[in-house]
TrEMBL record, chains A, B, C:
Its EC number is 2.5.1.18. It comes from Dicentrarchus labrax. This is Microsomal glutathione S-transferase 1. One of its GO terms (cellular component) is endoplasmic reticulum membrane. Belongs to the MAPEG family. It is a multi-pass membrane protein. It catalyses: RX + glutathione = an S-substituted glutathione + a halide anion + H(+). The keyword ATP-binding does not apply. The gene is LOC127358746. Its main location: endoplasmic reticulum. Homotrimer; The trimer binds only one molecule of glutathione. Keywords: Acetylation, Endoplasmic reticulum, Membrane, Mitochondrion, Mitochondrion outer membrane, Transferase, Transmembrane, Transmembrane helix. InterPro entries: MAPEG-like_dom_sf, Membr-assoc_MAPEG, MGST1-like.
Length: 151, 151, 151
């Protein structure tokens, strides 16, 4: 088994995969932070100690919380396909330099995507980083399907 | 490492996994297409050049956009478990014919599920393709747990 | 290929991964159950045989359905990163006892999280099980990045 972790491409994949997944997971504490500072909760038991009037107020959606949630959702829709396709891609034995280019580009895109989403940078910064990240995954999927095809 | 990609079951898994993930990823451009043609956006910076009145209109939800998003969400909830269970299933060394049956059935179900969701086919077409896809994943999970069990 | 499934750590990972994924997948039938018993649907074709007045009623959101959906979403946001990081973690060759501790703790946390979410247990039961589950994943990610780092 150890031989997988001795392969340089697989080591590079592991590194960048862990980085983008950690980035994605950090959206949850960020959402929690916005929920607390903006006073916007989704569950009644989270505001159980408050008066009925306060509860009503605290259970309303807040734009900052919704923005963080949309960003998290976009990560789920893009980072997880990258991970799964990337795992298969790493197993097809690509050149280390080509693999690193894919992984670095994707990680950079997603970090920039989150920054532009949360800090509300003007478009097309968010749109372009989203599309470029997807193209990286499509490029890896193309390599996977052109190397291994058994229908 | 190369020996994984020389295994026929793993090659079949790789092929169908890439297909269903690509299908899932295509929901994002479809949602973007509906957002543009139906004029329904989620973020203020996406409509920054419009007048205040137009903005209000463009930031409302549209049924077609919401439908594409629900379909995408259903893919996340079903395709990703299939991928992860399928990866473990492929490693348990099943018969190629049995594995192909699982993978083909699942891919067929999900493609039909998307068609019936987006083109609003009458029920139970969407419901049945959803349930059949889940049963395929359950069947693979059963094989995984009955072959490998270390609690 | 068979050598992966002869490794005890990988077998333990496979077992717990299948368990938490099955738990996550069961949120879908639970949501469907709430949709039917509470009379709350998201798609018009699901209520096509009803009168116009009834349709309007049946297409409204119900708190129980929304709660099950939030719980499912939280699973997606936590179980899938655990799976992906856990797969890489298992490949770094940790001690069996350390790996089992991580996997058992995570599975326990997520099962308790679902129970406390669906049965509306008072906080901080849901919050703590959510945070503890995340810490397990962070601990595995730390091990992965400190063993394998190729930027």
């Amino acid at each position: 088994m150890a031989n997988l972790m001795e392969d340089e491409v697989f080591m590079a994949f592991t590194t960048y995969a862990a980085i983008v997944i950690l980035k994605m997971m950090l959206m949850a504490p960020l959402t929690a932070y916005y929920r607390i500072t903006r006073g916007s909760y989704a569950n009644e038991e989270d505001v159980s100690r408050k008066s009925a009037e306060e509860k009503k107020k605290l259970l309303k959606a807040h734009p900052d919380v919704e923005r963080a949630r949309r960003c998290h959702q976009n990560d789920l829709e893009n980072v997880i396909p990258f991970m799964l396709i990337g795992l298969l891609y790493a197993l097809t034995g690509p050149e280390l330099s080509a693999a690193l280019l894919h992984f670095r580009l994707f990680a950079g895109c997603r970090i920039f995507h989150t920054i532009s989403y949360i800090t509300v940078l003007p478009q097309p910064s968010r749109g372009l980083s989203w599309i470029l990240g997807m193209l990286v995954t499509f490029s890896m999927a193309y390599r996977v399907l052109s190397t291994v095809l058994l229908l």
